[in-house]
Write a structure and sequence with these properties.
It is built from 10 helices and 14 strands. Helix 7 (201-208) packs across helix 8 (243-251). The longest helix is centred in the first third of the chain and has 18 residues, at 16-33. It has a domain at 4-70 and 184-344. A hairpin with a 4-residue loop joins strand 12 (319-329) and strand 13 (334-337). By secondary structure, the chain is α+β, with helices and mostly antiparallel strands.
């Protein structure tokens, strides 16, 4: 049982970015300390608490976490699982602009290779790859403007007596990341890491008190990063993301298990029953391991339509509250999370 507790004052349980960043802290600190680390919350709308075997201060923890920053973010954005975010993008006609949305055959091959090295060498990349590349949801390549219509293509194939090649099917990535414009998961990881390397205080600030950076988008994880005119000093709209908390939150993606029905991508704690998809998460006060947290995130009562009906059962699970944050909607894509709201109690 962990003997030491460290409160993370800037990471609150009712905030989607704060919740994800706390999971990211758990992910990285367990590796850094080489021991089982656990996480709890002081309560609803209250800070996270890290439980460790050895005494750690906020300053020491920030230094440990900063040790995972990539030396050259553009070349290797994710040193914790190298070679995944640096994969080259498929350049076939109609291919997605995100390298993690790859041909399904390539994804199967890579996962087999990573799983083999995981068995032989305890390599973490299989778990990371499965959390970032969704092989249970695939989409075909986009048609080019000059691609022949179905009737014309069928006639051409019949005339040549050659069986036409079927479409290339591409994987989806995690729905926890909402790409807008030319955003990709890799370049958002790169931008967050570059900001944290440029100013070393960002990692410490992620734990103690957030620093917002003008013109930084925040990977669409925080509604406050949109920076409308009323939030800026000069009265002009500007992005104002939190690089340290965002970089930590991206590491939380490894906790979530990807699912899908071949046509729609989903993940642990992801709800698509409303007009806009939403992240739904529990809040607990007992010190839980990463495995226990994943089990709790996946529990069906956490995503029950009316959680108040199951209040006693949720309490028996150790849950003190359930929070939710819906995606915003931009003109052609989803945007940042809305502010977190308490669904129960």
């Amino acid at each position: 049982m962990n003997r030491h507790q460290l409160e993370l004052p800037a990471l609150h349980s009712d905030d989607p970015l704060g919740f994800l960043a706390a999971l990211g802290v758990l992910e990285l600190s367990e590796t850094a300390l080489g021991q089982a680390v656990r996480l709890s919350w002081r309560g609803l709308a209250a800070p996270a608490v890290l439980h460790t075997d050895q005494s750690v201060t906020l300053t020491q923890l920030a230094e440990l976490l900063a040790g995972f920053l990539p030396g050259e973010p553009a070349k290797e954005p994710l040193p914790a699982a190298p070679g995944i975010l640096g994969l080259p993008r498929d350049t076939s006609p109609g291919a997605p602009n995100d390298a993690l949305r790859m041909p399904i055959e390539q994804a199967h091959r890579l996962l087999r290779d990573f799983a083999t090295t995981e068995r032989l060498e305890n390599d973490p990349r299989a778990r990371w790859f499965a959390a970032l590349v969704n092989q249970l949801c695939v989409t075909p390549a986009k048609k080019s403007k000059d691609e022949p219509q179905e009737e014309q293509r069928g006639a051409t194939a019949a005339a040549s007596a050659v069986t036409p090649q079927g479409p290339v099917w591409y994987t989806e990535s995690t729905p926890l990341f909402a790409a807008s414009g030319q955003m990709t998961l890799a370049n958002n990881w790169v931008k967050a890491a570059e900001q944290c390397r440029r100013q070393g205080a960002h990692i410490s600030a992620a734990l103690k008190g957030w620093i917002r950076v003008p013109d930084y988008t925040g990977a669409n994880l925080d509604h406050r990063s949109t920076g409308d005119a009323s939030m800026t000093g000069d009265g002009k709209p500007s992005q104002q993301g939190v690089p340290g908390a965002t970089w930590l939150a991206l590491h939380a993606f490894a906790t979530f298990r990807l699912t899908g029905d071949t046509t729609r991508s989903a993940t642990t704690a992801w709800d698509t029953s409303g007009d806009l998809p939403a992240l739904i998460w529990p809040v607990w006060t007992s010190a839980l391991s990463r495995t226990s947290i994943r089990a709790l995130l996946e529990h069906p009562l956490v995503r029950a339509e009316n959680p108040a009906r199951f209040g006693e059962s949720l309490t028996n699970l150790g849950v003190i509250g359930i929070c939710s944050a819906s995606r915003t909607k931009l003109s052609n894509s989803y945007g940042p999370f809305e502010p977190g709201q308490v669904l129960w109690p």
